[in-house]
From TrEMBL:
It is found in: Secreted. It comes from Adineta ricciae (Rotifer). Residues 1-19 form the signal peptide. GO terms for biological process: proteolysis. One of its GO terms (cellular component) is extracellular region. This is Peptidase S1 domain-containing protein. CDD domains: Tryp_SPc. GO terms for molecular function: serine-type endopeptidase activity. The lineage of its organism: Eukaryota, Metazoa, Spiralia, Gnathifera, Rotifera.
């Protein structure tokens, strides 16, 4: 009995609501339909069936009883209504109504009214993926290579895409959002035959895993120059959005022209050829290579430092090491501050990862405004 009086006194002075008065949340009846919605009405306890006359509509109890309330981890508002008045109009009871629900304390002689309650909860939305996150740690310390074949950890690069024409792997690309894939412009020769051109996302084995996504549009950079391989960058708009999972994620984009800095370790992945000029040597599984950023390719190519990145062989001295035919369009992958970034896309090289010759990538940062302009365009079905 002493504990009963103590609890009554605590509620009386802490809630400032008593003698048939109810304290509700300050913004009663407000629940912005743009960002939230009301749950269904709940009425878990009827005071007429209790020995002490209390009425409890507690969200912690309701969560256990009804999945509709379980989604309401953050209660924005609470609304209540009285289902039935107390039989005793002179009853002395106290009702506390807040974002935890309703707690009305009465007695067998002074019963509470019968309340029902509902909660304003944030709308259920799919969590937005964070770019550059991988759920499986890739190899980063071994002498890895595409040419000569070193298999990547399955799905450790979940943004990697196999672009396939008539069921044959043709180029690589990287996922940058639900609707768009970044690749090289020279990979996009199929505007007149999109029905046979697909993007396989979430794949490790390009024959048996992942999902083929239909393509709606191929967008080449407007100043792409095929003979000189300048502005060699393009964007694929998909016909339907990608569903992200642990196997399928977008990559972040480098938007700082100074990155990646000289001597940075970078990576390239792909399903391309594993031997120079062996056109039937493309890999069924995703392979990767480790490269190093160097300062200049102009002694080999018509290189443009502002819009291109030059990388050097870092593999075994007695073996070719790097990208090959079929790896074009794949990302130049750069790890920074716990996330993976696409610093470029494979554009061209001499041979396949030959130690004597560097590989050139189109620099993502130089085209970031164009990329944003394309991916933010309204979609036309």
């Amino acid at each position: 009995m002493a504990s009963y009086l103590l609890l009554f006194a605590f509620l009386l002075f802490s809630s400032k609501s008593f003698a048939q008065q109810e304290l509700s949340s300050p913004n009663d009846d407000e629940c912005d339909p743009k960002t939230a919605s009301w749950t269904s009405w709940f009425n878990t306890q009827n005071p007429r069936t209790t020995t002490n006359g209390n009425d409890i509509e507690d969200i912690s109890v309701i969560r256990k009883l009804d999945p509709d309330a379980a989604r309401c981890d953050t209660v924005l508002n609470v609304e209540y209504s009285v289902v039935g008045k107390s039989h005793n109009e002179t009853s002395l009871y106290q009702t506390l109504i807040n974002n935890n629900g309703v707690f009305c304390m009465g007695s067998a002689a002074s019963r509470c009214p019968d309340y029902r309650v509902r909660f304003c909860c944030p709308s259920q939305q799919e969590p937005q993926p964070q770019c550059g996150e991988t759920f499986r740690q890739p190899h980063t310390n071994s002498p890895l290579r595409i040419v000569n074949g070193f298999e990547a950890v399955p799905h450790s690069f979940p943004w990697a895409v196999s672009l396939q024409y008539k069921n044959v792997h043709d180029c690589g690309g990287v996922i940058i959002d639900q609707w768009h894939i970044l690749t090289a412009a020279h990979c996009l020769d199929y505007s007149e035959d999109l029905g046979n051109y697909f993007a396989r996302v979430g794949a490790h084995n390009r024959f048996s895993s992942g999902q083929l996504m239909p393509i709606a549009e191929l967008v080449l950079h407007p100043t792409y120059n095929e003979p000189r391989s300048t502005d060699d960058i393009g964007i694929i708009r998909l016909a339907s959005p990608i569903t992200f999972s642990q196997d399928v994620q977008p990559i972040c984009l480098v938007d700082n022209a100074a990155e990646p800095p000289l001597d940075s370790t970078v990576y390239v992945v792909g399903w391309g050829n594993t031997a120079h000029q062996m056109w039937n040597s493309s890999s069924p599984v995703l392979l990767q290579a480790r490269l190093r950023v160097i300062s200049d390719c102009s002694m080999y190519f018509a290189y443009e430092a502002k819009s291109q990145v030059c990388t050097a062989h870092t593999g075994p001295a007695d073996r070719d090491h790097g990208s090959c035919q079929g790896d074009s369009g794949g990302g130049l992958l750069y790890f920074k501050n716990g996330r993976w970034y696409a610093a470029g896309v494979v554009s061209y090289a001499i041979g396949c990862g030959q130690q004597a010759f560097p590989t050139v990538f189109t620099k993502t940062a130089s085209y970031i405004e164009w990329i944003r302009e394309i991916i933010n365009r309204p979609r036309v079905n």
